[in-house]
């Protein structure tokens, strides 16, 4: 079963179709993607799910992201449906009620995910859910669960690079670094890559992600790497490694730029209505993406640049 | 060449086609370039007797290209030049598991007839319109308004079948959906390969029992399927003859993974509400929460008995009756025969007869007088009360029983049976797999009378069961 080590990957035509039929300008689309992935991570923490479960939800979210316009459903509902589905299939199922409470809290004024400067004073009224609220949320979430499954033809298997990375580090004798330091750095790169709008987890196999994360960690710590092409031992070629190394390192800079471009970003939960306002501000129509027919050639070039 | 952006996702067919086209064009160019270079080189050679090292390298390069344009399969080139010493680049392992796309609609199939409708869903025979291929469509049973959404058992079944590839495990081709996409209770269908018979119907209808060579072949196929599952950390948890399919070419396939699940290490918490009553292992009946692959091996033992006699081996009417039937056949557990069984939740209050092991031991040998010694020892070990003592599927494949005469009959020599699935619904006279819910506690049960009078009467009669 090679599926234990490998993932299905997006095809170029899938990526192209997604880019060419986008309903949102590219920067907004990426911001929404990033915000939704961050929200999923936060919900995973509050639901006390291990990262192995939450990361799978991130990957499934990325896969389903290719299929449908992000504006079709509220972002937080999609995030909730994915994490609910993944937890249900795993060893630590979470009830719809738990998921509902967590998302209600995260979107409230009390949410610790969006620090507003002063310490949030705990006000349970801010995230209390009435029975009707809960019922509506549950209906939306379960509808999306089925939708997401159908868009993935019910294939929910995700292979994560994290365990591979540790195995690789063992093979490399932890690059003569303290084990915890180099492992932690590697895992941090892998977790950050989950949030990258370049969708690294659906365009690259786990072995390549693991190798690139180790390379980055080694560079950060000034560890000495083997002199020959050690990445080939892990079935990664130089070009792919080079791309992933840069992609993983660029997430932080990209986030900084995002904060500059969207000053309000990260102050509260990103909702569809916020995005619609932003589009109005720019004088763009909401909903269908074919209002401004784009040059196909341009789009391809853009995709090449982004890789 | 060196500036060619490498296609990172060069995996799909259209991509390969595109690449092939590009490669052709490139080779054209390369050939021209090589020709030109050669001319230049000849000129240079005429001028200079000695060649510089860089030119040698280039010539080598061109030779290489010329070779590749003729027959060699495409090889990706490194962007950075490598030292000449290790120019033969390593072959990198590539996994290709394809991509994902939305489920197709069930409208791609045309229903022919119903096959069965059970607790766990509805199965029909259908043809794929595009190809005319006959398949089995199994609809996942969905509870309208289930507060938990799609049933986790169904999702597990899909995931497991997607991952399984073995000739003795039924193959799933795809999952298709009804057209009401937005509704959460939209129908979901598993498209499975169609197999003509199920073993249960065959056993019910056949006038003569299977020959022992046939029993051996069926058991071998079942066991190799089970071994594959266990090797891949899958417990089936509902092995029984009605879940085993048999093709007209004598090929047995394990089906119905509605109870199956992956078990990792450490084991997740498992429900004891698994396996249809008649095939349920004693440790499950006694309420264990930490069972393993041995529960499937118990079911294999029950199936072996059923293949020989055409009758389900242990037909209890409820949990208490089932365990008493088990003890009646396999003997009463003792601390020697099953260390630690007393600590199982339902065993604490059992009252068992205190007799010598001789009088309360296993009667399997007597129940199957025609079985060879090797066969009886295999059945005995499969139906060992202590799960630790049962053989694994892999061990069972090596058993003496399968090497002795009569040898297992080749599949191609199996008799064919009139197909039920083609025409009519299958009948069932057996309990269904357990439904999720509250486990039944046995309560205080007194089995002390179970063997009373065994010495006086032949067998089977004269025991009493008293609920206290």
Automatic annotation (TrEMBL), chain A:
Any single biological process term in GO: regulation of transcription by RNA polymerase II
Domain of life: Eukaryota
Disordered as annotated region, ranges: 283-307
GO MF, one example: cyclin-dependent protein serine/threonine kinase regulator activity
PANTHER family: CYCLIN
Protein name in UniProt: Cyclin
Organism: Trichoderma semiorbis
Automatic annotation (TrEMBL), chain B:
One GO molecular-function entry: ATP binding
Record InterPro entries: CDK (IPR050108), Kinase-like_dom_sf (IPR011009), Prot_kinase_dom (IPR000719), Ser/Thr_kinase_AS (IPR008271)
Catalytic activity: L-threonyl-[protein] + ATP = O-phospho-L-threonyl-[protein] + ADP + H(+); L-seryl-[protein] + ATP = O-phospho-L-seryl-[protein] + ADP + H(+)
Biased composition (Basic and acidic residues): 11-28, 36-45
Keywords, in A-Z order: ATP-binding, Kinase, Nucleotide-binding, Serine/threonine-protein kinase, Transferase
SUPFAM superfamilies in UniProt: Protein kinase-like (PK-like) (SSF56112)
PROSITE patterns, sorted: PROTEIN_KINASE_DOM, PROTEIN_KINASE_ST
Region span, Disordered: 1-90, 402-438
EC number: 2.7.11.22
Compositionally biased intervals (Low complexity): 47-59
Pfam families for the chain: Pkinase (PF00069)
Extent of the signal sequence: none
GO biological process, one term: regulation of mitotic cell cycle
Alphabetical list of PANTHER family matching this protein: CELL DIVISION PROTEIN KINASE, CYCLIN-DEPENDENT KINASE 11A-RELATED
Family: Belongs to the protein kinase superfamily. CMGC Ser/Thr protein kinase family. CDC2/CDKX subfamily.
Protein name as annotated: cyclin-dependent kinase
Native source species: Trichoderma semiorbis
Record lineage: Eukaryota, Fungi, Dikarya, Ascomycota, Pezizomycotina
